[in-house]
Amino acid sequence: MMQFIRSKGGKFVTLFIVSGFLAWMVYGIGMEASGATVGVNELGSVNGEDITLQAYQEKVQQLTQQLQQQTGGRILPEQQRAIEEQAWSQLVDEILLRQEMARRDIRVTDEEIRFAAGNFPPEYLMQQEIFQTDGRFDINKYRQFLAGPQASDELLTQIEDYYRTQIPQSKLVRQLSAGTYVSDAELWRDYQDRTETATVDLVALDLSKLAPANPTVTDAEIRRWYDEHKDELERPRTARFTVAYIPLGSTEADRLATLQRAQAIRAEIAGGADFAEVARRESKDPSSAERGGDLGTFGRGQMVAPFDTAAFNLPVGELSQPVLTQFGYHIIQVQERTGDQVKARHILLPITKSEADLERLDARADSLERLAETGGLERAARATNAQLRQGVTVTETLPYIAAVGQATEALDWASSVASEGGKPVSDLFESEQAYYVVRLEGYSPKGRMTLDEARDQIRQTLILEKKRAVARAEGEKLAAAVRGGQSLEQAAQARGLTVQRAGPFTRVQPNPLLGQANAAVGAAFGTPLNQVSQVAETSAGLFLIRPVARVPADRAAFEREKEQLRQAAAFRLQNDQGQRFMQSLREAADIEDNRDKIFGRA
Q1: In 491-520, which positions are buried (b, 16+ CB within 10 angstroms) versus exposed (e)?
Q2: How many CB atoms lie within 10 A of CB 225?
Q3: What distance in Å separates the CA atoms of residue 73 and residue 65, rounded to the nearest whole number?
Q4: What per-residue confidence (pLDDT) applies to 24?
Q5: What is the DSSP letter of 214?
Q6: What is the enclosing helix (H) or strand (E) of 253?
Q7: Are 502 and 199 in contact (CB under 8 A)?
Q8: Distance between CA atoms of 322 and 324, rounded to whole angstroms?
Q9: By CB neighbour count within 10 A (0-12 exposed, 13-18 middle, 19+ buried), where does 203 fall?
Q10: Rounded to 5 degrees, what are φ and ψ at 5?
Q11: What gap in Å lies between CA 575 and CA 572, rounded to an integer?
Q12: Which residues does 143 contact at the CB level (< 8 Å), separation at least 6?
């Protein structure tokens, strides 16, 4: 079966995704949620305004087609599920926004449309070659086109419809963001958080060494904790499986093959081939390939680290060697660089398996499914060299299997088997990471956990709390010894602990040892140099921190970049305001969702 349905397209890959309220509104709401058949086949409603089955199906089809263009036609069940949820969410938000604009009496005049159409063309028109001069959009060519006989009535109507939607949305954005201003003091604090660095010596207070024995936990303590926290002990849908899976991950041979392909493409361009034409042919970044690899202008830190480093160090006009990121290999060409802004284009080659390898994997997956049904999961795993794991738990809050990926489809199957009956071994499932088959070993529906169900979990929680209390007390003694004249190294060694060096890191940069924006990071920047902090407690553990170096933010650089920073900060604030505004609209709305009933999922 898998060999038959496999498309030749690669997996969905994109360099980065810009989402959010403002970006979405600027590019238009899209089709009307209520469709042309209001009152027929209502799928739900928003404040009494119907969402029709037809509108929903059209939105699903639109999003599906977009993803198919990116994946070469192949969509996994988990992706289809996400599309359906996205379609519903978009339709709800479209109606909420339209209702809000009507409530605020936000309108658009013909004069506003004429001005916008002549001065701010839609992005998709700016990318058309007939409106460009030397690769850049030429407003005069665009205006001549609109005034000439080439502009069809259909195109002019499309442009008018675009602005009748976009302009009111822009007015709403301006109303929501009116008065948004970021002061110099706020900018400076944010700049300090992102650029000041600290280097520290730290001691992780290892519970296994400072509190090795498990403390006693009484039944009374467990009962008291349960009574105080039982509202937090909601049990999600939970299934326990035996899993047989065949990984789909790329190998070192796949990486080397992709690197060789990237080197060949670079040589082709270096030999005189047109970069844009090669990008359209070869690049697998759907957001830029059709534009000849053009990424536009971006600032420092907007791209993933290896790409960012290459883009800001590569001489203008030169081709990079293949640059490896988590998305694959990139061939980069910087076209312009001004300060902390770069205009660049790239070709992306994700690391994928060859068609021959994929066909062999499909054949193994088909065999795994067939043998699991006829001869048992263990035998099927041995015969197909699949990985076998027992006692795998999947919950609704964490529908994930390590090395397999998203497993909501398996959880839904288990729920169906538990309620309706059926064979205990599933058909073949496919995720982004693996083909897999599961055998159901146990299932629990959603509900509040009883004391007996939660007992072991509560016991472990209380043991951890008591161990942390012991370790905290030992850490305070260690810190006191250092303040009394012992070195941090001597005091740590006496307790079987070690001193580690971490940094330099910023206040907001993810830190593999300390975490991010927590008490330990605060101690790194707040404790005087070469002195030992109080015990800092984080979700990652307990720490003593001794700062050894700090590099302050560069005030002169801040002053040079201040206005750009202000614009970026204002955009983030406006986007946050928009997100909160949409959330408030949803919370206040009367939203009826009948999808489960109509699709027979109730």
Answers
A1: bbeebebebeebbebbbeeebebbbbbbbb
A2: 19
A3: 8
A4: 36
A5: P
A6: helix 252-270
A7: yes
A8: 6
A9: buried
A10: -90, -10
A11: 5
A12: 118
d(CA 25, CA 72): 28
- Termini Cα distance of the chain: 30
CA-based radius of gyration for the chain: 29
What is the per-residue pLDDT across 442-491, written as a single tens digit (0 to 9) for each?
A: 998 988 888 998 899 899 999 999 999 999 999 999 999 999 999 999 99
Question: What is the separation of C-alpha 209 from the centre of its chain, rounded to a whole number of angstroms?
Answer: 37
Helix, strand, or coil here: 129?
A: helix
Q: Under 8 Å CB-to-CB from 514, ≥6 apart: which residues?
A: 202, 502, 505, 520, 521, 524, 538, 540, 543
Interior/surface letters 50-82, b for 16+ CB within 10 angstroms, e for the rest: bbbbbbbeebbeebbeebeebbeebbbebbeeb
> For the chain, percent helix, then strand, then coil, each to nearest 5?
50, 20, 30
Q: How far apart, in whole angstroms, are the C-alpha atoms of residue 233 and residue 128? A: 57
- Summarised one tens digit per residue, pLDDT across range 159-168 is 887 788 778 8
For the whole prediction, is pTM greater than 0.85? no
**Distances from the Cα of 589 to the Cα of 34, 92, 582, 584, 586, angstroms:** 16, 10, 10, 8, 5
- Whole-angstrom distance, CA of residue 589 vs CA of residue 399: 29
Alpha helices in 108-243, H assignment, sequence order: 110-119, 123-126, 139-147, 153-177, 184-195, 207-210, 219-229
pLDDT at 23: 37
